[in-house]
Design brief:
Two copies of one chain form a homodimer. Chain A is an all-alpha fold and about 190 residues long. Chain A has helices at about 10-25, 35-40, 45-50, 55-80, 85-95, 100-105, 115-135, 140, 145-165, 175-185. At the A-B interface, helix 9 and helix 10 of A face helix 9 and helix 10 of B. The structure holds a DNA duplex (30 and 30 nucleotides).
Chain lengths: ~190, ~190
DNA sequence: GCCGCAACTTGTCACCGACAAGATTGCGCG
DNA sequence: CGCGCAATCTTGTCGGTGACAAGTTGCGGC
């Protein structure tokens, strides 16, 4: 009885990623150490290295996981509405709820930016976003590429500013995010 | 002849800040070490500490310098035009040209966020931005606060995405930034 | 001209990332 | 059933780093 720790820890990779999420949420991505994660998970200091090769490797895996989650979330809301504003709210919601992932996804100096798994997930999220703009229709957007960049910019900027504490903590981010996104194309 | 290094290095503080800009531009803010900066400047490993107390202290000083530069730039363009789009382009231009400063200004995990010098510079930049939105007039913006957040979001998001390499390197950032900013309120 | 004090140096400690080499165990294959 | 192999994890170590403590140097004010 009682779960005997499945030897070799069983699922170290997952455990370390989860610990990294906690650590980043607490102290920010700059102040995470592999050794601390190993301690949190109850494993020797070199344990995590075997799964991620590198500190950057760990963060790259986290970032890829983040882009995959984001792509799924965007895809899901596109399935239930064609409102661009809702898509923007989904982006903001992701950034706020998965703050640790989000903070690592746009830090090339912390990642192996050419990792193929990362690239695949990133492209998938990008495609969902681009598809959402396409659905808006050209009469509302003018040039599609510019509109896509503008859309991404406004939701990304809002999410970043919110997460860095630059918008005050008083409001509900999703509600304010909704109003902000609505200013771009109307709703 | 030749300038004999003014003893005690003369102006270590400035020199270290300049070296930090170079180092961050080269390797990103995550991979900067005080000891490397000391070496670049030709000073013992503990030299910089005396001026900044901390690694975070150094980056805080850099961030404050960045906000001051940004506030000045915004102020200058507000003096010569009342176009909101131009103000946005100034924001983008600052982020691209002073990339090292910009990358550090929105990373609370690297800074002493309560530093009074930092706070003062940040507030000054914020006020310039808010003033620019105010100049737009209420009939164009609707709610001023929402409009201000939207304006900040779109230019900040664009600058961030550009600097992180997410928009492709093909275009001219100021030109594309202009078109993006123009989508918010028209020009 | 000397003295106090700020600017810098030297030395040290704990921690970290990376690497190498060894131990443990589950699993495939016979 | 059991043997050996490979993946997983551990132990040990190295150079580099941030923080701190204690000295040294020389500028500026009296």
């Amino acid at each position: 009885m009682g779960v005997v720790p499945p030897y070799h820890h069983g699922d170290l990779r997952r455990a370390v990623l989860a610990a990294a999420v906690d650590a980043i949420t607490e102290h920010g991505p700059a102040n995470v150490s592999l050794r601390d994660l190993a301690r949190r998970v109850g494993v020797s200091h070199a344990g995590p290295v075997h799964h991620f090769k590198d500190k950057a490797g760990l963060l790259t895996a986290l970032a890829a996981e983040g882009f995959a989650l984001l792509a799924d979330a965007l895809n899901a809301t596109r399935a239930e509405t064609d409102s661009f504003v809702e898509l923007g709210v989904t982006y903001v919601r992701f950034a706020v709820r998965h703050r640790a992932h989000f903070e690592v996804m746009f830090r090339p100096d912390l990642l192996h930016t050419d990792d193929p798994v990362l690239a695949e997930a990133r492209d998938r999220a990008g495609a969902e976003l681009a598809g959402g703009v396409e659905d808006l229709g050209e009469e509302k957007t003018g040039d599609q590429r510019t509109a896509g960049v503008a859309a991404w910019s406004i939701v990304h900027g809002f999410a970043t500013l919110w997460n860095t504490g630059n918008l005050g903590a008083s409001d509900d981010p999703e509600e304010l995010g909704h109003r902000v996104a609505a200013m771009l194309f109307g709703d």
